[in-house]
Write a structure and sequence with these properties.
alpha/beta; N-terminal domain of TfIIb; Dimethylsulfoxide Reductase, domain 2; 2 domains; five-stranded parallel β-sheet
Length: 393
């Protein structure tokens, strides 16, 4: 199906075409936009006729997806004009939702929020923003809740799915964003995928990862499931669910014990390494092996592959972050990269695979109760969130 989808766009004679409205791509009006389904951020070219979406293709000059889309991005667009879609504001009157004008809706909202705030206080009001919205919309939403309403009760899925990524990477790198670009896959010599199924959840990036593995670049997949990427992996560490921490601790243990650290990078670019080193070497390997269910020989082989690579990239998803130990796991992934010098150059880095197209932006703009825009700690107005741990200088 994926191959047919690609050929439908690339076929030079149009012998292969989409199953419906196959010639709709020839419409005069084309609108460039960004797909909202996952965190890859694919560019789309939308063919429009009489203000109706007729078809979608992937532009070849888009740096993110270069002519590729997944099934959702290419075909799942009819929801925008679905007959069940709400077309006007609705206000409940006498137990029924009835259509209203926008002015009526705004007046109703303002009246109700003012009454609640006056009677009960601002903390009786909360706002939910969206990781599918733009930075501007997310910023305005959290600003409205904080500055107008007067509460930190603002949230979005960015906190639920990848707040451990943001916090873990802030504590180790000082910022919660990916350290490099997906384009670095062209230059990497090793990939590690942990707690993610990119060929299903992030198909365009997943296809690039699959291509890298099929070219013979060493790959490590850490996942309880035998995902599609696991079939191509040099090492598939099939750990027990929820045991990411002990497995990564084992990898760090063997990298340090076997002297595979990038000593120059560690000495010049990190802090607190000696205490970290002693802590890792003091771990009980027997207990870690028993907990995660992966043999120490397998873990050691994978650790050597990662540490010995000229350039290594890691990718992690919700299988890392949606655990009680998610933040610690992200910190250990970051520690793996720093201990081996896989930060700050081409073909290396730590890459979270986000769930929606603007998870990063929603967090950057402050759509979470504990941090404002720019990750400022709400308990210390104007003061950046403190960071701790092994830090790059």
């Amino acid at each position: 199906m994926r191959e047919l989808r690609r050929r439908a766009q690339a076929c030079p004679t149009s012998a292969i075409s989409d199953i419906f409205e196959s010639k709709a791509v020839a419409t005069a009006e084309k609108v460039r936009t960004v797909c909202t389904y996952c965190g890859v951020g694919c560019n789309l070219e939308v063919a429009v006729d009489s203000n109706k979406v007729k078809s979608i293709q992937a532009p070849y000059d888009a740096e993110v997806n270069q002519g590729h889309t997944c099934l959702k991005g290419r075909f799942a667009f009819s929801f925008y004009d679905h007959p069940d879609r709400i077309r006007t504001p609705l206000i409940r009157r006498n137990g029924e939702l009835v259509p209203a004008t926008w002015d009526e809706a705004y007046d109703f909202i303002a009246e109700k929020l003012t009454a609640i705030k006056s009677q009960h206080g601002p903390d009786f009001i909360a706002g939910i923003s969206s990781a599918r919205c733009t930075n501007e919309e997310n910023y305005l939403m959290q600003k409205f809740i904080r500055a107008v309403i007067g509460t930190n009760n603002i949230d979005s899925c960015a906190r639920v799915c990848h707040s451990p990524t943001a916090l873990g990477m802030q504590r180790t790198f000082g910022t919660g964003a990916a350290t490099n670009s997906i384009e670095d896959l062209k230059y990497t010599k090793c990939i590690m995928i942990i707690g993610a199924n990119p060929t299903d959840a992030h198909p365009v990036t997943g296809a690039k990862l699959k291509q890298v593995a099929m070219k013979g670049i060493p790959s490590i997949v850490i996942d309880p499931r035998r995902t599609e990427m696991a079939k191509y992996a040099t090492h598939h560490l099939q750990l027990r669910p929820g045991t990411n921490v002990p497995l990564l601790q084992m990898m760090l243990y063997y990298i340090i014990m076997d002297g595979l650290e990038d000593k120059t990078f560690v000495a010049s670019r990190t802090e607190g390494y000696e205490g970290f080193r002693q802590q890792i070497l003091g771990l009980d390997i027997d207990k870690l092996e028993q907990t995660c269910g992966v043999s120490r020989e397998q873990v050691r082989a994978a650790a050597r592959t990662y540490a010995s690579a000229e350039a290594a990239m890691s990718f992690h998803g919700l299988g890392v972050t949606e655990h009680s130990q998610g933040t610690l796991t992200v910190m250990l992934i970051a520690d793996l990269a720093m201990v081996t010098g896989n930060i700050g150059r081409r073909g290396v880095g730590v890459n979270p695979l986000r769930g929606q197209n603007n998870v990063q932006g929603a967090a950057d703009m402050g759509c979470q109760p504990h941090q404002g825009a720019g990750y400022l700690d709400v308990t210390k107005p104007g003061v950046p969130q403190p960071v701790r741990g092994v830090l790059p200088r």
